[in-house]
Amino acid sequence: MIKKKKKKLIIALTVAGMIVAGTSIYVVSNQKQQESNLVQDAPQVNKVSDLMSSSTSKGESYLTGKVAPNATSKLNADSAKGKINEVFVKVGDKVTKGQKLFSYSNPDGQIAMEEAETDRTKLQNKLNQLNESIATKRTQLTKKTDELTALTNKVNNATTEEKESLNQEKKSLEETVELGKNEIETAKSELSDAKLDLQKAERTQQLTNEKYGRSEIVSDVDGIIQKIDDTQINSTVSTGSQPESFMEIMDTSVLRVLGKVDEFQKGEIAVDQPVKLIDRKDQSKTWRGKIARVDATATEEKEESTISKYPFEVVMENGEEMPNIGNHVYIQPEKEENAKVSLPTDYIMNEKDKKFVWKVIKGQVVKQEVTLGKSNEEAKTIEVNAGLTKEDTIVFPTKLIKEGMKVPIHD
């Protein structure tokens, strides 16, 4: 009898414990469900500009390109200048415009330039002497002319007996004056010929110096030495042959980025459009540039390709720590600041052939009609041509959102 009572007591206690435990689980579970419902039912309030930034980053795709030099400057060995006898740089060196690169040795050319200089100097001296001679003769002529004028006055005032002697003296002086004039005219003719001869000599010297001169060759650009053909040093180029360039310099005064854009993205870039360039290995390194060229003709791709691609080119702005030539970078076209408002399509509602969104005005939800534009199916966004600005705040539409309800606004 006692054993039966103990057994009933144990069963009663067990059932009571289960009831208490079940009640606790229900209370905790119900509390969590209520908290979950509160979170889910909270209105999603967002500023239009924030939604635009978010949707843009989701639908954004980078172009890619390869960093290239502005151009490659090729220097050929000129046998007319002689043999290349000394090189002042090596492959990989950075050079600046005007820096010495290499020099020629040409004894025959040196002699030709010296002879041309000697000929020019002789003719210049002759010209100087003629000018001095003409100046001296003019001075002498002026003196004799003054003497003739004075003697003529004396003859006019002389007696008959004196005139005979004075006239003979006057005749001799007139002959001297006439001779002086003739000598000056002859000298002037010689001077004119000498000027022509000097001009010819100067032209000959110029051509000779262009042919044999400038024994030291300097760089015309800022860049990097890419190639030096050592086999052309101290060697003679045979007539009629066209060897490869002796030296090549990558012009790094301006860096360019070469890439290709497919037919779907081609409309997103245009000449003079600013772009952001991002290092593929270290995306904290960025540069700026502008689209310089977008080809209108697609390049030939592999036969199995079904997408056309168009070459384009970006000119980089010079700055510190520019990327190495040959590196690949991401290219992000920059959007205009006055770009149209665009929203995720989930925020747009339909009602009687009209489109509207839930807009927040002074903390309350109101129905705002909007006019829509183009849609971007990839990014799942649509342009809003009228009815909203970037500064407006809107609410994500759910069944719980009602016109006039109050919502919290976050700055």
Automatic annotation (TrEMBL):
Pfam families: Beta-barrel_YknX, BSH_YknX, YknX_C. The chain crosses the membrane at residues 9-28. Residues 256-331 form the YknX-like beta-barrel domain. Keywords: Coiled coil, Membrane, Transmembrane, Transmembrane helix. Its main location: other. Gene3D superfamilies: 2.40.30.170, 2.40.420.20, 2.40.50.100. GO terms for cellular component: cell envelope. Residues 76-239 form the YknX-like barrel-sandwich hybrid domain. It is found in: Cell envelope. Residues 113-211 form a coiled coil. Residues 342-407 form the YknX-like C-terminal permuted SH3-like domain. PANTHER family: EFFLUX SYSTEM COMPONENT YKNX-RELATED. This is Uncharacterized protein. The lineage of its organism: Bacteria, Bacillati, Bacillota, Bacilli, Lactobacillales.
